[in-house]
Amino acid sequence: MAALPSIKQFKEGILAGNRTLLARAITLVESKKKEHQLLANEVLNAVLPHSGKAVRIGISGTPGVGKSSFIESFGKMLVQNKHRVAVLAVDPSSQLTGGSILGDKTRMVELAAMEEAFVRPSPSEGGLGGVARKTRETMFLCEAAGYDVILVETVGIGQSESTVRDMVDFFLLLMQPGGGDELQGIKRGVLELADALAITKCDGSLEDSARQAYNEYKMGMHILRPGKEDEAWVPEVYLVSSHSGKGLGEVWECINRYTKKSHASGSLSEQRQKQNIAWMWNLIDERLMQGFLASAEVQGQLATLEEDVRNNKVSANYASEQLVNIFSQNNK
Hints:
Elements: H1 7-15, H2 19-30, H3 34-47, E1 55-61, H4 67-80, E2 85-91, H5 109-112, E3 117-123, H6 135-144, E4 149-153, H7 162-165, E5 170-175, H8 188-193, E6 196-199, H9 207-224, E7 236-239, H10 248-265, H11 267-294, H12 296-310, H13 316-329
Parallel strand pairs: 1-4, 1-5, 2-3, 2-4, 5-6, 6-7
Helix pairs in contact: 1-3, 2-3, 2-6, 12-13
């Protein structure tokens, strides 16, 4: 097995835009090996001052809405406009193997082949909101490598989409036409997170349905999030077609307006600072849980207490307190 590059080699290669070293650094970040995690942390700290200059966009929507098609068309348009685009495409994880279920980069063949684009699929590993656990760190590496637009594609609506919102600057929700009562089945909380909605597949036989959905969502957003004179941003709704390119430029203009307004007000900087702190606490929670489950003393009582809770012999509150006390006593 080839030796790993040094931290200096990683840093210099990533800052020079070396895609091979960028991919290897991301693999380190995603690795569960302790030695890889330690090296990944060093590499991240080395390049962190060079990150933060990209526009971070989260893109979500129900399965079948056409996220991958939209991202490929949108990404190609951005490349044509002299941007460098990184796509962090999160694939669903198999519950059996933990590996990706979908076809990875085969869903974005043309974009992945472009020199100015970098498409990185990762299994979600059951992460909330369909976001891979290491997506944030991967995003920082891509920014340091000079990619000025980061697109985070999520698995789809179903868990906490706030996880996506908490790592990006702009949250775009894709909706599809032809589903009958368009607002049915869409959680209000998800709509409240969106900075803009894009109705997909506005072409061919679905164009009329798309326009109907556009009107319904426009009215729905007006009801859910009525605009106020002092409100910083009122979410907008667009009609788009990944096939013809319709509406893609308008969506990008919308994102630019939003980020410029956020920069001018200072809210973007404040939002990113809050996201960094929130992520630190998420990682603390994760590491504490890992240590808790790795404790031999906890493992010695866990099965018995789980069984007692299952059979209503003790309350969940009692069992959790017992296990936490066992962990605390053995980690003083």
